[in-house]
Amino acid sequence: MDRFTVYVNNQLPKAAATKDYWGGAASGTADRRVLIAGHKSAVTFASQITKVETLRNPRDFGSLVRGLSCFGWKGLLPTALAVALVN
Hints:
This protein has one domain. Helices cover about 0% and strands about 50% of the residues. It has no helices and five strands. It has strands spanning about 15, 30-40, 45-55, 65-75, 80-85. A hairpin with a 6-residue loop joins strand 3 and strand 4.
């Protein structure tokens, strides 16, 4: 779309047909999606691998490596974000 980078995610919340996202009365019968738009400086993301261990592979020769990854995000500039309910 016009100078926007569009990302699609199936984990965005759905608003029910009888209530809007904030709990008020809504019109229409179709399920609605919450659309979030904003500037890239509005949110930040961090990721870190906290634990790593080596295991013997029980089904083959060699070793396996597994790790624990912790991640999260935070909104820094809430005024640079917009939320819309779309049908």
